[in-house]
Structure formats: structure tokens, C-alpha cells
Amino acid sequence: DITSAYNVAEDIYLEPEFNDLCGFLKSEIRAVVTQIVEECKLSPQKGEDALALMQAFYDGYSFSEQENELIYNPTLVLYFIKRFQRQCQFPRQMLDNNLAIDRRKLSYLSGLPNGESIISQALNETPPLNLKRLAKSEGVDEMLNAAKGKTFIISLLYYLGILSFNGKTEFGKLRFKIPNLVARQLYVEQLFELFLPQESERSQAQLLAEDFYQTGDLQPLCDFMEQRYFRVFDNRDYTSANELVIKTAFLTVLFDDVFYVMDSEFPLERRYADLTMIMRPDQRKYPLYDFILEFKYLKLSEVGLNGAEVREKSIEELMALSAVEDKLAESEKQLLDYQTRLESKYGDSLLRLQLISVVAVGFERVVWQKVYLNHDLNIE
């Protein structure tokens, strides 16, 4: 309507004073949680556990280019709060089914040129996704007709609420990150289905992961990665292969929000563990382990062998290769440092911590070891 004054509407979407308009602040959530804890006659620690869980799974959103207090996803917070109030316990699943539409849109984006690589980059944050500016809108016309390049994909991920502002680069570009574990789960599940399109394969992988949670034995899962998962990679993937590719592969298989708070590149006093799996406080009654995993990658040229030669070697022969030994030693040092820092945060009496080093030799073989505080490495 060319006669309407609405044609000159002012866009205030990114103004900092409106950053928390459609979300909750931590102080607002704390007040409600405190009331529920009192009504349910629970310990104050239960309230702190609830706040910690919601922060990990639901916090992390910023809708202003300026530095603002991060806000919580209101749909997810209300989902958690309603169940906590009714049942006096935390919901088993942290993801509200109302976000199923985001799964479908993420699936659409992953099928676009560069879509899969952008999703993987968002998950690894190396390097962080960045843009000079957001696309102005993602309406029907843009969805159907616009060029669907990097700007389109990242902007749509942002507008969907599964990317958030994360400051600026040294050159002033807008930087983005996955805001929390619920959003991260959407990315992980999308890549899981891309890499393992058969339901039977995904079911097998999940069963192996569940066994790992209970035993700490990674060998069956390593065998699966060699025989099934890594078969989706081809020679072109070798050119960009590194630790991040291996970490992403294991993350998609091991991710579980029912029992674990999982994080890749978890900050531990300015150091970053590749993958941490810390049991949810409400699930510690079950006999499962906590984990820190460190991933390393060796090119075939670094071990002086071709793919066929690597496949023929036994695990013991692979472990004896000097390049593999060096990677395991490097990983051991890092894991022991992470253990000290993690236990200082959670307390060594709370965690049932397993330290695991994983080394991939090309996409052909995977070896692993548990690391112990006495520096004695063993295979289990």
C-alpha cells in the first residue's frame, strides 16, 4: 500500500535496549526457581542445579551488536519450569518438541551449496562464523529466489535463533556462535543423519555410545567409526582433514542430553578441552562415567604408510609408531592438566572421570588410550 505511512517504518530490531525483549534474564529465572524449590520442599542445591542446567542448555542469546547480558530462550525455559513445578524434578529431555520446525529448516540449509560445511564450522567454531552484515530479511521471496550463499545461510541461522551474536572480529565483522546445548544438539543431529543416513546405522552407533557411557571402553565405537562412519569420506576430504573432523564425527555419535552436559572446546581456565561429557546433576544416581576426550589426527604421510598398509596393521603395531606415540604423549599431558582444572571446578569426589585420548590415522584407523593420573597409559 503506497499510501500507508508504514512504508517508512523504522527498524529497531538490533537496538541494545530491546535485546531482552523476547527472552528471560538469569535474575528473572532465579526468582521462579527459588519459589518452586520452596513449594516442592527441595534443597537449595536443587535450585542451583536447575539454574546451571538451564544456563548450559538455554542461555547464550544476544540480539544486539553491542555487548549485552545474554538472555535465555523463553520457550525452552517455560518448558523446563512447567515440568519442574508440576513434578518437582527436571525434565528428562531438555529439548522442547516445539523446536522440531528448526530441525526441518536446518535440514534444508544443510542441502544448500556450502550448507554442510557452514554447519560443521558453526559446530567447531574454528574459525568462528562471521559476516560484514546480516541479510536484511529472509522472507518468502528471498527463500525462493535469492542467492543462497554464506550470508543467506548464516543470517537465516541467526533469525531462526540457532546462531547468536558473539562480538566482533579484529576487523569489525559480526561474529556468531551456537548459543547453547539445545541449539548445538540440532546441529549435531543434522550432521549425524547426513553422515549416517541409514536408521540401522544410527541405532547401532547409539547402542555403542550407551555401552561406552557405562564401561568407558571406546574400542567398539572406534571399530564402528573405521568400518562404517569414515566410509562416507572420500579422497577430497583428506585435503581438509584434521582433528576437528574427527572430533565432530565422535561428537555426533556420543551426544546425549538426557544424561550429559556435553561441550566441545570446553573452557578450563583459558584452556580448551576437545570434548567434555559431565553427567547432569539429576542423573548421578546412575552408574555412568564422566569423560574428557582429546582428539588427534595424523596424515598418512606423517606415519609413512599408505591406506592399505595402515589397515593391515594391528592396534599394537599402530600404537608403536613413533608419530602415534608422540600424539598420545601430547594428549596425555593435556588431559592430565584438564583433569586438575575440571576437578577444581566440580570437586574430585563428585566426578567419575575417565580421560581418553583418541588418535586417528587418516580415515583408516583409530587408536585410543585411557590416561591415568599416575601417567600409566593402558588400552582397555
Radius of gyration from the CA trace? Answer: 22 Å
Shape by Cα distribution:
globular
* Number of domain modules: 3
The helix-and-strand class reads: alpha+beta
Q: Please write the string of helix (H) and strand (E) elements.
A: HHHHHEHHEEHHHHHEEEHHHHEE
Report how far the terminal alpha carbons are from each other. 71 Å
Q: What features would you describe in this structure?
A:
By secondary structure, the protein is of the alpha+beta class. It folds into 3 domains: 8-94, no CATH class; 98-181, no CATH class; 196-371, no CATH class. The chain contains 16 helices and 8 strands. The chain has helices at residues 26-39, 44-58, 74-87, 100-110, 115-124, 140-145, 150-159, 181-195, 199-215, 219-227, 235-238, 243-254, 300-303, 307-312, 315-319, 322-346; strands at residues 129-131, 164-168, 174-177, 260-268, 271-279, 290-298, 353-361, 365-371. The strands form 2 sheets. It has a 5-stranded mixed β-sheet with strand order 4-5-6-7-8, sandwiched between helices. Helix 1 packs antiparallel against helix 2. The radius of gyration is 22 Å and the shape is globular.
